[in-house]
Amino acid sequence: MTLSSIGDIEFVGEVEWDGKAIVIRAVTPSGHVSCRIPRETIHAIPIYSDALEREIRLERRLILERLAPALRAKISTSGAGELVNLWPWEISRARTGRREPITR
Predict the structure, then answer these.
(1) Which of 5, 22, 28, 69 is the most buried (most CB within 10 A)?
(2) Rounded to two decimals, what is the model's pTM?
């Protein structure tokens, strides 16, 4: 099952929740990469700041979709076969869908 594809990085397979992290595989031009989104990163998204394990399991695909841009950016700097962990400090405001006010 293909979740989504942008550029040359495609998420493939099931989006899994192992109780500690969302786990997904990605295919890049240089090969496969295993990806983890730890609970602390999920909790950095305001809407999921107090999410329970059951809620994360049920919404794991939506969480991945929200964090996909940041995860793709990190994957693009990683080598094939590496384990990529997406940490809270590596995600931007854009991950939550919030927009910065336009100031002139």
Answers:
(1) 22
(2) 0.80
